[in-house]
Amino acid sequence: MKNISTGIQNLMTKKVYCVAPGETLGKALLIMRDKRFSCIVISEEEKPVGILTERDIVKLMADHSPPISPATTIISDVMSSPPVTVNESDTLFEALVVARAEKVRHLPVINPDGRIVGIVTQSDLVKAHFNLYEHQREIVETSIDERTRELIRANKELKALSMEDALLGIGNRRAMEVDLQHTHASATRYQFHYSVMLIDIDYFKNYNDHYGHLAGDDVLKKVANRIEFIIREADRLYRYGGEEFLLLMPETGLKDTALKAGEIVKDVQSLKIPHEKSSFKVLTISIGIGNCCEIEEKANATWSDLVDIADQRLYKAKDKGRCQAVAS
Hints:
three-stranded mixed β-sheet, disordered N terminus, 10 helices, alpha/beta, 11 strands, 2 domains, Alpha-Beta Plaits, single chain, CBS-domain
């Protein structure tokens, strides 16, 4: 029985046509037409600085009246930049998380030097995911002993590709870690800020003990749904563990994050979910905030350092009486 590899190196297309930022849109369109490419990468010294996809082109045509002239439009003026990339050492799961979080269909693949070595598309990722399910079906046709061993292995692979929390339908802890790692690396490479919030339901154990675990599960869903309703499309909500959530806010400063955190605290409280075992008598949340600018001076800082800061401030919010957000 064949082994299903989930490494990006085995999925990517190695033949990538690149153009320089100073080329015209017209030249890029001709290349895409002649080569039947769904996208083209814009690079400098073999390092991707932008990308132009079929979807970008449709949006360009729709947003400009009168239409822009491809012959005179410089591609650096209309490309999506910086491009969302993945590393050649990444796995299928990591690429799936990045594509889902960033809402992109084309991922340039780079080597440790940042040079482009390939490209992987949404179709490539979906096909690889589907192949794992097909692999399970093939196993059924083998002998019982071999079938059992192969099913165990295949089920582990499929479980490893799960990106969502089964109860809440938001990103799970493993997907969160991949997204944070990718976001931190991109923020470092392209010099932009990002923020995180750690969100905790106040007195949740007391709520569970008083109302029961089914009611507790229902409350978790209501809080998650409410937070997702009021955040931006670019923001990503994950289940951090138990009654805790992590909200990742790309390209957001500390001040704007604090304002949004205050809004979330008030919004959840306004749901007026009864909580007799809370001093507020309704369900509330506390939030700790961190921004990557706070770890810029630390040598070899990682996303986990930022989460630690948010965690410390979450404890401070609880010490100060709960139902509030703390940003310093």
